[in-house]
Amino acid sequence: MREKDKEKLARKLSRTKDWKGASIEQRKKEEREKKKPKR
Question: Where are the stretches annotated Disordered (predicted)?
């Protein structure tokens, strides 16, 4: 594997990790909103 390919792969992995983490946070937020009684 060339260095460039390694960099690309690492960037891709970190991006997916960030995306997954963000989606988890979003889900938690949404659940909290659902639990709140709406007025």
Answer: 1-39
Helix extents (H) in 1-39: 3-35
Tokens of 4: 């460039």
- Model confidence, pTM: 0.36
13-26 residue pLDDT tens: 776 666 666 677 78
φ, ψ of residue 16 to 5 degrees: the values are -65, -35
pLDDT of residue 35: 83
Q: How far apart are CA 17 and CA 15, in angstroms?
A: 5
